[in-house]
Amino acid sequence: MRTAVFPGSFDPFTLGHLDVLNSSLKLFDKVIVAVGYNSGKKGFFPPQTRVEIIRQAIGENPRVEICSYTGLTVDLCKDKKADFIVRGLRTTTDFDLESVISQANRTMKPELLTVFIPAGHEYSFISSTVVRDLIVNGGDASGFLPKGVDISGFIEQSRRDK
Ligand code: ADP
């Protein structure tokens, strides 16, 4: 069975991420969407909320697992018995950064292969940063988010939990 980990901050998960996930499901039997967080660095949404947003975005799919993790992606891949890492590419800047990270991971675990999936052109300008800016400034981010995601509900929930 071919298993891949799709790691990211997913703060929050966007239509661009969903496009990469759907493409990766054409290549792999199972894809683990892994919300990476750093306990010292506060994100916009807490990791558990990011997981819930992803669950709402994709629903039940036996070929997709969602988890959160801290620490090295290579260690998560070992735990999950995944031989592939999936990352999305929008621009040459993404490529420059991603190639360095993939080389580092390959040095630590040579059998682990990173697969880059190009952004669909209609999604290439979408980023979690833009979504967060829209939310903070009272704009409508729904055009950048997967259908079915009740982002205002999650914003309310995060405010209450603070
Ligand atoms: P990270 O902080 O790890 O870069 P992100 O949540 O920003 O986490 O992105 C996770 C992955 O998804 C990265 O590989 C990123 O390049 C990719 N990605 C983000 N937005 C898009 C998009 N619109 N189209 C394709 N890939 C994307």
Q: What does the model show?
A:
The protein is α/β, with parallel strands linked by helices. It has a five-stranded parallel sheet. It has one domain: Rossmann fold. The model has no long low-confidence stretch (mean pLDDT 95). Helix 4 links the parallel strand 4 and strand 5. It contains six helices and five strands. The site of adenosine-5'-diphosphate has 17 residues, from helix 1 and strand 4.
What's the topology here?
Blueprint lengths: L2 E6 L6 H13 L2 E7 L10 H12 L5 E6 L3 H8 L3 E6 L2 H17 L4 E6 L9 H9 L14 H11 L1
Parallel strand pairs: 1-2, 1-4, 2-3, 4-5
Adenosine-5'-diphosphate binds next to helix 1 and strand 4.
Q: Care to count the β-strands?
A: 5
User: CATH first level: which class?
Assistant: Alpha Beta
> Considering DSSP H and I runs of 4 or more, what fraction of the residues is helical?
40-55%
Task: Name the average pLDDT.
Answer: 95
Radius of gyration over C-alpha positions, nearest whole angstrom: 15 Å
Largest sheet: 5 strands, parallel
Helical run tally: 6
Spell out the CATH superfamily.
Answer: HUPs
CATH topology: Rossmann fold
**What count of domains describes the coordinates?**
1
Provide a compact summary of the structure.
The chain has helices spanning 15-27, 47-58, 73-80, 92-108, 128-136, 151-161, and strands at residues 3-8, 30-36, 64-69, 84-89, 113-118. With 162 residues, it is of the alpha/beta class. Strand 2 (30-36), helix 2 (47-58) and strand 3 (64-69) form a beta-alpha-beta unit.
